Every structure is written in C-alpha cells, then in structure tokens.
C-alpha cells in the first residue's frame, strides 16, 4: 500500500526505518549500507524528508544523524501508515486480541529496527495461552499480511525486552 502511494523505494525504506520505532536513528552511510542503496539516493531522500519537516537531523561530531520528527503534524498518521504497511495492525487484530490473557505484545528483531525483512518476530507475555489456537492464528495472520510471523510466549517480560509495543495491559 505504502509503496503504491510513494514510488521511491528508498523513501519507503526511510519511512519504515524511522516510523516503526520512533527512537530509531540513522546516519547517511549506515542507512545506505543497510538498504543496499547508493549514498546519493539515500542523501536525496533524507534531504527531501528533512525539508518537509518529517525527519529532523542532529550534528553528532562529524556525522549527522536523522530521526523522525515527533512534532510534525503528520507524525501519528505516518506511524499508523507504516504499521499498516508492515501488517502490524492485522497482527494485533488477528493474533493478540483473540488470545485473551496476553499482558504485553512486543515486536522485536528486524521490524523493531525498521527493517522490512519479511519475518516479524513477536514476543507475547501472558499465561495460559492456548498454543494450538495460537498456531492457527499465526497461519491466518501470515496469510493476511504476506509475511512470516515467529512468536515466542513467556510468562514474565524480561527486563531487556525492547521493541515496538503493540499491546500492554
């Protein structure tokens, strides 16, 4: 959906990177390497998004880092669009809400870093989750999202659990 509205693949990758997790930061060379794109094409898109106020940049020593502009009027809408593009909204709808005893759901791994790798890693924190039903729901979610979903179920959240929080009760 997002790639139909925005024809620049590099711009889509940048929006995913910075709006899937608002604390994500990036540097020109690091982003070019991560996206396997030329530094020039990444620089052009970074400048466009910065000029539009969607991204902000900070000078850190000799390097300039970029991040999402949380003050931009479209920040929440862009975050929502990226979540829908990645299928995170369907993941919550299909898998998490229908299990019942989930206290917390966190996307970790590549997607939490803003990398659309095709495999969504999800950690569910809860008790008495029906594993058989969960497997069925994961298959349904994978069909709807056209992405692979890997789920880890734990009873207590580890202290170092970082990622995109989809649900917290």
From TrEMBL:
<protein>
    <submittedName>
        <fullName>Transcriptional regulator</fullName>
    </submittedName>
</protein>
<dbReference type="InterPro" id="IPR036390">
    <property type="entry name" value="WH_DNA-bd_sf"/>
</dbReference>
<dbReference type="InterPro" id="IPR036388">
    <property type="entry name" value="WH-like_DNA-bd_sf"/>
</dbReference>
């Amino acid at each position: 959906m997002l790639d139909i509205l925005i024809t620049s693949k590099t711009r889509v990758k940048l929006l995913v990177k910075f709006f899937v997790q608002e604390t994500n930061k990036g540097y020109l060379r690091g982003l070019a390497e991560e996206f396997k794109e030329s530094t020039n094409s990444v620089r052009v898109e970074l400048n466009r998004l910065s000029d539009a106020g969607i991204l902000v940049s900070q000078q850190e020593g000799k390097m300039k880092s970029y991040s999402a502009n949380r003050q931009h009027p479209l920040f929440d809408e862009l975050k929502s669009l990226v979540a829908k593009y990645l299928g995170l909204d369907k993941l919550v709808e299909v898998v998490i809400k229908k299990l019942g005893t989930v206290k917390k759901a966190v996307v970790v791994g590549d997607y939490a870093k803003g990398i659309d790798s095709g495999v969504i890693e999800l950690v569910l924190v809860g008790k008495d989750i029906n594993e058989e039903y969960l497997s069925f729901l994961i298959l349904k979610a994978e069909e709807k999202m056209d992405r692979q979903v890997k789920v880890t179920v734990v009873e207590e959240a580890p202290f170092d659990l970082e990622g995109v929080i989809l649900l917290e009760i």
